Each structure stands twice: as structure tokens, then as C-alpha cells.
Amino acid sequence: MFLLSWTGKGWSQECPTAFLDKTTPEYVYTCYHGSNTQREAEQAFMDGLRNNAYGALAHQFQSQVRSIVEREIRETNLETEISAFSQTDMTTDLTLTLAQSKRLYDGKRREGWVIVYINKAEARGYYMGEYNRAMTRIGNAMTNAQAYVARGMKAKARDEELRPVLPEFEKAAEAMAWLDLFAFPTERMEQMLSDYRRQSVAVKQMLADLQNGIAVCLRSSAKVMGQAYVPFDSDVKGRLQPLGCNFVGTTAGADWIVDVQADVNRTVHREGLPYFAYVDGTLTITNGKTHQVVFAGRISQLESGHADGIRGDGDTRSYDPSAHDAYKQAARLVANKTMEIIKQ
Fold first, then answer.
1. Strand order in the sheet with 100-106
2. Euclidean distance between the first and the last CA atom of the chain, given in angstroms as a whole number
3. Which of 31, 133, 192, 264 shows the smallest number of beta carbons within 10 Å?
4. What's the rounded Cα separation, in Å, for the pair 246 and 129?
């Protein structure tokens, strides 16, 4: 039972006889009494008294739930994966979803009483549902993520299943905090906490494994006037790393196999004008788990405007600087297409 002392328009006191059926151990409640010294209209006065009573009960819960939820998140070591329990106002959920009220007004004495109460059993049912919904979403996300990983689609598992479901841990923790306040059975709560911690560890571990866990075998051949052009390989890798790719030397264990064969396919130079080099080649992307060729095509066709190949900026001295610039463009196209495939 919560009896709250307030100054001003209203204050709490023992409930009148008419409210006694809502003051048993099955309820959480607060009684609020006020004197209509300003001679307001009865409806307006009682509405104000009711709002104060709602706010008083909600405020009492709010501080307690925050403390419990923050402790639970801290103990499960989820700080790095989800935000600390938000400081948003929880009164709307409490008052509109769970709390009910009764009122009594003595017109002769111009005094009013309001009781705001919550049935503990109904509250437990509501928050048990909230907990189950959150944990079901987490479980489904884990199942879907595992299926994606088995098919080599780690980015999809991480970005479309696991990361989006992280806020559900906060919802589950909040629901358990409310259940605790509404006298939920200890043994059942311990089992729920165990399930919560087990799932949080599993999700955290899977996210850690996937953070830089997309294994890519990049096999590239790039040439400029018959000589190997090594920076192309590094450029492609650098563009893929932010996606969480790590690069392996063999196809064994690779999630994706990216084969690139590129060369200068055309040069143009007219007297008194810059030297231009054009680059083109083939790109093949294979799923390392299923061995399915997901994409195969020419690099120049990855973007419009390269009918004759990918032309580099002109240079007044030789073809090499133009070829290097063309390869930068080609690396961008190859990386973008690879990321598109990996994210699918």
C-alpha cells in the first residue's frame, strides 16, 4: 500500500468506507483528499484531485522501477549493446493501461476523496504478456539469425535480426521490474531472469562474432600496361571493411568469394590532348556456404555511363595516372556491388 503525503490542493489520508473494497492486499492504491476552498465546480475540482492522485501513484512507481531495471541491465552486462533504461515518463502506461479510480464528493463540506488503484493480479497478467512478447521476439530473431548465418548471410543476421531486437531486452527488463513490484512469485521470477540472462549472453556473443565476422576471399587481378596494380585490391578491401568483413586467403571457410579480373582495355591520346585510360573486367560473387554464383557480370555495367569501359581522368604525361583513377572508380563499383549482395 502506498499512502503519499502531499501539500497544496490535496493530501492523502485513510480511505473512506466507500473505498475499502479497493484497499485489500490484492490492490496497490493511494487515497487522495482535498478541500474545495476555491469553490470550483465539482467536476473540475474532482478531476484535478484525480490527476494529482494518479501522478502521486505513478511517481512512486517510477523511481522504483527505474532502479530495478537499471540494476538488471547492469547485472546482465548489456550496457554496450543497449542503452541504459530510458528516463522517459512511464506514467502514461501506468495510468491509462492499469490504474482505475473512484471518487466521492461531499457538497455540503465541499470536500472530495479519490482513490487510484491497481489490481495486482491484472497488472501481473499485463506485464507477463509484455515480457513474453519481448522474449518471443528475441527468440525469433535468434532463430532467424542462425538460419541466415548457416546460409552465409551474416550481415543480414546482424543488421536485420539481432541489432533491431536489442530494445526488446529493455522491454523485458522493465516488465520484470513491474512484476516484481506487483508481488510476482519468486520462483517464477528466478526462472524468467535465468532465461533473460541466457538470451542476452547468446545475443551478445553472436553479435560479437558477427561484428567483423564476414569472411571474404577476394581474388583479384588488376593490371596496368601488363604490370600488376596492387592498390586495387587494397582499395576494394578498405571499402568493404566497414561492413564487418575480414579477408581470408583461401575459399575454405569463406562466406563470400569475390573474383575480379580487370585490365586496361582501351587507351586514347590525340596530339596536344591528355592521355586517357579505360579499365574494365569481370566480377563474380559466389556464396561460400552454398557455392551459388550470386552475381556475374562486367564491371563497366555496374553503373551507367561506362559503355567503353571506366575512363580515368586524363593526364598530360602518360596513361598510368588515368588508369589509376579508373581503378579507383572500379574499386568503388566492385565494393558497392559486393556490399549489396552481402546485405541481401
1. 10-11, 27-35, 111-119, 100-106
2. 54
3. 133
4. 41
